[in-house]
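Retry 2 of 3 after timeout on previous attempt. Resubmitting structure tokens to design endpoint.
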């Protein structure tokens, strides 16, 4: 049952007006922040990868082909408006301005769509506003769209939000073209539309309880030794010097090799959690019943067609084909104990921790009301998130985490604590302009304190000092949420807003 009859019929309780207002307010906030912080002062606001992308945009705009760079070529679909503008004669600086404006409009629209998604899923108005505000304070949503506009990350966020909105609104057919497009935007982004397309909202079996601890434990006990031995044997082949040098710049330090044993234990714990969640998923009949075979088959065919087209249309025999993914992810895990968790907390904010906790709670028989499509989407990203610390590579998981966190039953005090920590994590961004400008002038290391206001949000480039501060804040957040949970249990009649109305 809902308590809608007791809620005043004000604008912020109605989905459409409140979603529109949120989009407009967020656009205003991004515009104000852009006027304060400007663009990253690298290559005239284009950044590093952005500078290369802009060169490719101008090549395509003049009818020329990209040669020997298949990895970046697949991301050019995120800049189609700029290719058209370049073809019409727009100079490079104008292209940066156009993309900045587009990013602000699209990200603000995505904020409104996320709010409408939450309301369509039955999240209470106050819980929806608090959860959304917490999520929108994340670095990729609050700063990157205007500070580093020439990145496909910004388009990936829009695609992920649009997929969630289409799924919540029942526009199932729209997910197929979004799936085909997602393959060309960012690696891993296809997981969101693929899962949502295969598991329509009106086919959800979240109300069916299917917790089989014995079967889960048996499958887990059989699987975990094999997976752990394989992963740890690969990780053991990585030398200390190789791990220590990963993403280090000008004598900077990104790894605590004196704690490698603890880091290996943390990696083993993360893999154990992944295997447990996998075992739990395999034996959950309600999860599999939520998959509609015809939709899943259609989604698989669309994905295969898009992937085959990518393989055939691009020359993969030369040029940069992408980093060695598993190799890099293991180095990131071995750099410091639970460094991926710290990195995602600093980049995505509290919502990613709440979403991960929600998945673990589901695995032990709690949180059964969570829609299976959202659960499966979040679970599909967890192996990547728990092992790798480069959050932006898996940025499609952020909107999903916001929705999952909003649907997690938290007390009002806990949601306010999440918002407070999100604000605390976002505040240092206000000093980006003088800090990064000074670091550039001095030719400082990326691990210097000034550069860390930017690179501290990018896990592999995180300095030891940033890691230690982030770990402290993560522990403080965990303790604060635990205290809030204990207080809510002692006062069951005053739990405040839950995730659902």
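Retry 2 succeeded. Sequence:
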């Amino acid at each position: 049952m809902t308590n809608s009859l007791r809620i005043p019929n004000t604008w912020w309780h109605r989905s459409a007006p409140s979603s529109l207002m949120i989009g407009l307010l967020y656009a205003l906030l991004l515009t104000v922040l852009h006027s304060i912080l400007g663009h990253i002062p690298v290559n005239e606001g284009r950044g590093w990868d952005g500078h290369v992308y802009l060169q490719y945009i101008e090549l395509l705009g003049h009818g020329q082909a990209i040669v020997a760079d298949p990895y970046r070529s697949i991301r050019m679909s995120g800049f189609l408006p700029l290719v058209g503008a370049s073809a019409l004669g727009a100079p490079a600086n104008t292209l940066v301005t156009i993309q900045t404006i587009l990013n602000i409009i699209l990200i603000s629209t995505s904020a409104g769509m996320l709010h409408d998604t939450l309301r369509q899923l039955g999240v209470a108005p106050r819980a929806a506003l608090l959860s959304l505000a917490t999520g929108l304070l994340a670095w990729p949503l609050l700063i990157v769209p205007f500070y580093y506009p020439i990145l496909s990350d910004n388009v990936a966020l829009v695609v992920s939000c649009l997929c969630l909105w289409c799924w919540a609104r029942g526009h199932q057919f729209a997910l197929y073209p979004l799936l085909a497009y997602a393959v060309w935007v960012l690696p891993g982004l296809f997981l969101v539309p693929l899962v949502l397309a295969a598991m329509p909202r009106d086919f959800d079996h979240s109300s069916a309880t299917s917790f089989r601890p014995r079967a889960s434990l048996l499958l887990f006990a059989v699987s975990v030794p094999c997976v752990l031995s394989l992963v740890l044997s690969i990780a053991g082949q990585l030398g200390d010097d190789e791990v220590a040098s990963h993403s280090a710049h000008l004598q900077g330090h990104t790894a605590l090799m004196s704690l490698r044993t603890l880091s290996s234990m943390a990696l083993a714990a993360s893999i154990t959690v992944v295997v447990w969640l996998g075992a739990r998923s395999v034996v959950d009949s309600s999860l599999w019943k939520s998959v509609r075979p015809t939709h899943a088959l259609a989604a698989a065919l669309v994905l295969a067609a898009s992937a085959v087209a990518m393989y055939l249309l691009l020359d993969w025999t030369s040029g940069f084909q992408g980093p060695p993914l598993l190799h890099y992810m293991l180095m990131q895990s071995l750099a410091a104990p639970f460094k991926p968790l710290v990195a995602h907390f600093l980049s995505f904010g509290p919502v990613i921790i709440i979403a991960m906790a929600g998945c673990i709670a589901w695995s032990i028989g709690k949180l059964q009301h969570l829609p299976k499509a959202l659960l499966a989407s979040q679970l599909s990203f967890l192996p990547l998130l728990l092992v790798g610390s480069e959050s932006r590579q898996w940025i499609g998981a952020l909107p999903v985490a916001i929705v999952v966190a909003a649907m997690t039953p938290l007390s009002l005090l806990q949601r306010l604590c999440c918002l407070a920590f999100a604000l605390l994590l976002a505040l240092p961004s206000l000093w980006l302009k003088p800090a990064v400008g000074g670091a550039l002038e001095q030719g400082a290391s990326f691990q210097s304190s000034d550069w860390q206001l930017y690179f501290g949000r990018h896990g592999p480039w995180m300095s030891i000092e940033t890691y230690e501060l982030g770990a402290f804040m993560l522990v403080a957040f965990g303790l604060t949420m635990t205290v809030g949970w204990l207080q809510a249990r002692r006062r069951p009649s005053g739990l405040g807003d839950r995730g659902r109305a």
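Attempt log closed. The chain has one domain: 4-494.
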